[in-house]
Amino acid sequence: MDWRGKVISLMTTKKINQKDLAKLSGITESSVSRYLNSEQEPRIDVLLNFAKALEVDVNYLLENGENRNESNFINIATAIARNGNDLTSEEKNKLIMLVLGKDGCE
Hints:
By secondary structure, the protein is mostly helical. Helices cover 66% and strands 0% of the residues.
């Protein structure tokens, strides 16, 4: 299941709609709609906001059984650069572990 399917499933489980997700994640309702309807691909920082709002680890949303690639590395590096001051040390470490291809449990 891709990140969209996971977000939609979590929304169903938590009984929240797109408007609620927008409010919880700090993303406009129209942007949430575009992301969930495959009209626009989110940056990693948007996925981080979704993960926080849905109370899951961002790794859960990102893992889809495919090999990590350079694009993921660039997205994660961008997220750290843009949101470095807003991320906790734990979140930064998780992102770094994701970049390195590790699950963070070592």
